[in-house]
Amino acid sequence: MIEEFKNNFIVQVIKEDLASGKHDKVITRFPPEPNGLLHIGHTKSICFNFAVAKAYGGRCHLRFDDTNPEKESDEYVQAIKEDIQWLGFDWGEHLYFASDYFDQLYEYAVQLIKLGKAYVEDLSFEQMREYRGDLKKPGKNSPFRDRTIEENLELFEKMKAGEFEEGSRCLRAKIDMSSPNINMRDPVIYRIKKAHHHRTKDKWVIYPMYDFTHGLSDMLEGITHSLCSLEFQDHRPLYDWFLDELKTPCHPQQIEFAKLNLEYVLLSKRNLLRMINEGIVSGWDDPRLLTIKGMRRRGYTPNGIRHFCDSIGMTKKESSIAMSTLEYSIRSDLENTCPRAFGVVRPLKVVITNWDEQKVQDIECAYHPKDESFGTRSVPMTREIYIERDDFMLDAPKKFFRLRPEGYVRLKFGYVIQCEEVIQDEQGEVLELRCRYFPETFAGARPEGFPKVKGIINWVSASHGVKVETRLYDRLFTVPTPGKDVEKALSEWLNPNSLEVVSSYVEPALANFKVGERIQFER
Question: How far apart are CA 324 and CA 330, in angstroms?
Answer without folding.
Answer: 10
